[in-house]
Records
---
Amino acid sequence: MSSFWTEGNMLIDGRLVPSESGETFDNVNPATEQVIGAVANATAVDMDAAIGAARRAFDDTAWARSPEMRVRCIRQLHEALGRFADDLRATTVAEVGCPVALTYGPQLDSPVAGLPWVADLAESYEWETSLGLAEPFGMKTHRIVRREPVGVIGAITPWNYPVQINLAKMVPALAAGNTVVLKPAPDTPYGATLLGRLIAEHTDIPAGVVNVVTSADHAVGQQLCEDPRVDMISFTGSTATGTKIMTAAAPTIKKVFLELGGKSALIALDDADLGSVVTSAAFATTTHAGQGCANTTRLLLPRSRYREGVDALVEALKGWPFGDPTDPSVLMGPLIREEQRRRVLGYIDKGIEEGATVAIGGGVPDHLPTGYFVEPTVLTDVDPDSTVAQEEIFGPVLAVIAHDGDDDAVRIANNSRYGLSGAVVSASDERARAVADRMRTGTVNVNGGVFYGMDVPFGGYKQSGIGREMGVAGFEEYLEIKSIAVGAR
Ligand code: NAD
């Protein structure tokens, strides 16, 4: 692998700049616990400047009114991302701790490959639709529906898939004609500052259209939610933070778009091929060490095949390759930080306290003394109402629950405050579809299908969020609708 790339400056009003205070914070590699570099620690003054720049760029430049310019700039960004993919890949592995294998998919290459789709959409989009002539109250009128950008977007993102989420928010927002202030998670700042550098050095995006503000202080994100010059907040993160964001945005009646937590269920129906169920469950548990909002972290097995399923899963996870994320054969890396590891281990203890059994894993691996690793862990005999079946653990911990048929499986799957994702496996596509259609979630995989794609809307029901990211629906989140009535003579 090539050596990784760092960028300690923010992007504010077209310039790569340090914090006005001169302060920085460290970026730590979760696999080695080593500092890989420092990044600007923004203050309220920096955030204020970024918001001001985004406001001016929206109000005073041609950006909001020129789809052609936007499409050209997004294609330039796509080209630059392709050119520097390997530098960005190494940085992503170093700061996120994800296996390099994941960067060839959802951590990097897949979202980058989606940019031309967004540019094509903006190019062919019907910005105005005619509703034709009518005579409301006897007044002859031509009616037109026009779509316009919302304005200044505050994008606040988490650390688990930083490049993917930064692009999934920023690119559709830009294509729609908005300007953006991006505030990434403090754990993974380079996934945003490097985008800032590419934008500044390799695109014609006007100064102020994109601003990247890094800070170790969550209050700087809160400021973005409160400032009246910001028109909309696009947030991905935990449901607890989502509540705070809605509250902070309420006094200025900002549009809020929220992608939040999940506790998704993988349902095996009684005719399912347990081999494919076990493979899916093992990957769902270990992919990015369970630090994915849509990982299926509850496995619902038919009661009659429960032991058979658990034994096969334990067997599969025994030899699971986890460890150094730069090793291409590794399928699972560490958690993002020590605090997160303590939280995950605390959940395992809580599960045991509430009656669950650890079938495999359950602790810190002896052979990996450095890095924030937790073993792939399977909890069996889990009560569907218990803490480990209800709360998002965000670690490699699977809760296995028995069900008594299709209706019972649907009931257990829907027994959650979340509604982000899910999966169903059955020998019959028709039966699996019938179950999938009853799941109260924003996405469902049926018999091994994969929903991910820049053209596929992604988001949650219930406390998993409001709105959709990606797809045409994700693009339209960033548009206002204006109805224009022109009197006909
Ligand atoms: P988090 O909620 O702790 O932080 C997310 C972002 O919010 C960070 O940038 C953080 O600095 C900022 N923030 C924190 N407090 C804030 C405040 N009061 N005001 C404004 N900004 C604030 O989430 P995390 O730990 O970074 O990420 C993990 C969570 O993200 C999980 O719950 C996961 O399910 C969720 N997630 C959801 C999706 C989805 O698409 N639904 C995708 C990825 C992650």
---
Amino acid sequence: MTRGRFISFEGIDGAGKSTQHAWLVDYLRAQGKTVVASREPGGTPLGEKLRALLLAEPMHLETEALLMFAARREHVAQVIEPALARGDWVVCDRFVDASFAYQAGGRGLAWEKLQALADWTLAGLQPDLTLIFDAPVAVAQERLRAATANPDRFEQEQAAFFERVRNAYLRIADENPARVRLIDARQTPAVINKVLENIVATF
Ligand code: TYD
């Protein structure tokens, strides 16, 4: 049995990644692939409970990082590893890069602390392909304002926070050229659909 493929979607809030995530899941299924669509934080019953806490409850930044990784550990064990072992495609709205971008970049937790958590809990698991949706913070914030009636704890952050998150994502893209593709999220959804089609046809 060939191991499945693992794709993650990343980007600052408002970049439009969730729309494209849903589109790619439908596209791959239409191509006859068996796709497990998931998201982080979340993806399991326990992970979704942790998500509800993470998005609503004020907490210390290390608590936030630990809960993100707790939810992820469960997600990997219950969903991602079994799916990849079956040969399915896993298409996940956010994965470990989000912890580096938000908890290290955005909140200022030491990169090395997150690396230690990743080394401990993921045993080297990384997506085969990561799509980072990049847009200027002002563009993403405008989209967020138009689309979100009740912003969560992260969405309520100031522009400077998202600038730091964006810069961390750009650093991740720079340091992982074989895994990461940076997508200009200012393009129209139809143009981005084509970009994704081309990327998944060749990765
Ligand atoms: P998001 O995908 O933006 O959910 P939605 O589109 O439904 O609002 O994810 C929720 C938030 O969680 C997002 O603001 C980023 C944050 N997050 C982290 O801070 N660290 C992480 O490791 C993950 C997975 C998400």
